[in-house]
Automatic annotation (TrEMBL):
<dbReference type="GO" id="GO:0005524">
    <property type="term" value="F:ATP binding"/>
</dbReference>
<dbReference type="Pfam" id="PF00069">
    <property type="entry name" value="Pkinase"/>
</dbReference>
<feature type="domain" description="Protein kinase">
    <location>
        <begin position="1"/>
        <end position="297"/>
    </location>
</feature>
<protein>
    <submittedName>
        <fullName>CMGC/MAPK/P38 protein kinase</fullName>
    </submittedName>
</protein>
<dbReference type="InterPro" id="IPR011009">
    <property type="entry name" value="Kinase-like_dom_sf"/>
</dbReference>
<dbReference type="InterPro" id="IPR000719">
    <property type="entry name" value="Prot_kinase_dom"/>
</dbReference>
<dbReference type="InterPro" id="IPR050117">
    <property type="entry name" value="MAPK"/>
</dbReference>
<keyword id="KW-0808">Transferase</keyword>
<dbReference type="GO" id="GO:0004674">
    <property type="term" value="F:protein serine/threonine kinase activity"/>
</dbReference>
<keyword id="KW-0547">Nucleotide-binding</keyword>
<keyword id="KW-0418">Kinase</keyword>
<keyword id="KW-0067">ATP-binding</keyword>
<keyword id="KW-0723">Serine/threonine-protein kinase</keyword>
Length: 359
């Protein structure tokens, strides 16, 4: 029988198994809280993510199920590895992943990376991880510096797949709730989640590594378009948000400043790559495998060491069937959590057997 202990972190109760202690807060969001902890079983620091009340409705249950399923199957050096998962007696889900020292957001806020080699190293690893994610037909949908973790040796991990979607899935969330650094196509009423959404986010992250901040959050609707251009009038009819439409209308005949006015770099290769990543037209935007071929990251590019996923999801998968909450709960607890523990146990037994054979 698994034993649980209750730990209060910033007013939130964490119900974790007794192998985890010394919980410290790392990141607080509306539906989840992330802490660091010590795993006494392996005597190492880990990250504990609490998914709060995922069974309030079918949509939240479905999101939790897909996040867990993706973390189990997406195995790559630049993706945070799932170490453990469990459901507490209060029906909260806890995801335990490998721990990294800091987020890219923390590094950017402490000191802009500018034109240092660190910018190239981190950008390359983001693109390498994205190539793998996209090869699985998955769109991350929430790429931002706080969801990119950095280790002491500059190893980078992409984390937080709670907004991930299968490529081609219909956009159902209100625009104001969508993450993705507010891409132009979502602003204009894009109906499906596409890989280009993540690539825009990479461009934004790249610019932030150089600049610290690209556009002010308050004026992103207008400032981002000043830099990348405005949609033709024929596309204006696709904008559902009246406030956005009202802001854009008087600007359609305004002359845009070039993107280089917003990104403070003298590196022409960096500027060229940023322009391809932040292209207004998603069809003109670089894909991850194209960006990896760019001269800016060519020093690190190794086609033999940039793997793709063996599994590819589709919209028709059962991940997106409307099921009752109780069914999702059963799928998560039995099909996914139990399966993870069984595979983990099998792996541990195999490792011990190999060690005995070697002796």
């Amino acid at each position: 029988m698994v034993q649980f202990t209750h730990v209060n972190v910033f007013g939130t109760c964490f119900e974790v198994t007794t192998r985890y202690h010394h919980l410290l807060p790392l990141k607080i969001e509306a539906s989840s809280l992330r802490c660091s902890a010590i795993d006494e079983l392996i005597c190492s620091q880990v990250t504990v993510k609490k998914i709060t009340k995922p069974f309030r409705n079918s949509e939240l249950s479905q999101k939790a199920y897909l996040e867990l399923k993706l973390l189990k199957h997406l195995k790559h050096e630049n993706i945070a590895a799932l170490r453990d998962v469990f459901m507490s007696p209060e029906d909260n889900i806890y995801l335990i992943t490998e721990h990294q020292d800091a987020s890219l957001e923390q590094l950017i806020l402490s000191q802009p990376l500018g034109e240092t080699h660190y910018t190239k190293v981190f950008l390359y690893q983001i693109l390498r991880g994205l190539k793998y994610i996209h090869s699985a037909n998955v769109v991350h949908c929430n790429l931002k510096p706080s969801n990119i973790l950095i280790g002491h040796n500059c190893d980078l991990r992409i984390t937080d797949f709670d907004h991930a979607r299968i490529q081609g899935t219909k956009v159902t969330e209100p625009f104001s709730e969508i993450q993705c650094f507010r891409t132009p196509e979502l602003l204009l009423g894009e109906c499906t989640y596409e890989f280009a959404i993540d690539m825009w986010s990479v461009g934004y992250i790249f610019a932030r590594m150089i600049n610290r901040e690209l556009f002010s959050l308050e004026d992103w609707k207008v400032n981002s378009l000043h830099a990348i251009g405005y949609p033709p009038r024929s596309m204006m009819s696709g904008i559902d948000d009246a406030n956005i439409s009202e802001n854009l209308e008087p600007l359609l005949n305004t002359r845009c400043k070039p993107l280089r006015c917003y990104i403070n770099t003298t590196d022409l290769e960096a500027m060229g790559l940023a322009e391809h990543l932040l292209a207004f037209d998603p069809k003109a935007r670089y894909q991850a495998n194209q960006a990896l071929l760019h001269k800016y990251v060519s020093f690190y590019h190794d086609p033999d060491d940039e793997p793709v996923s063996e599994q590819r999801w589709s919209v028709s998968d059962t991940d997106y069937v409307n099921l009752p909450v109780d069914t999702w709960k059963t799928l998560i607890s039995l099909s996914e959590i139990l399966d993870h523990h069984n595979k983990q146990l099998s792996s541990e037994v195999s490792s011990k057997y190999v060690m005995v054979e070697m002796k």
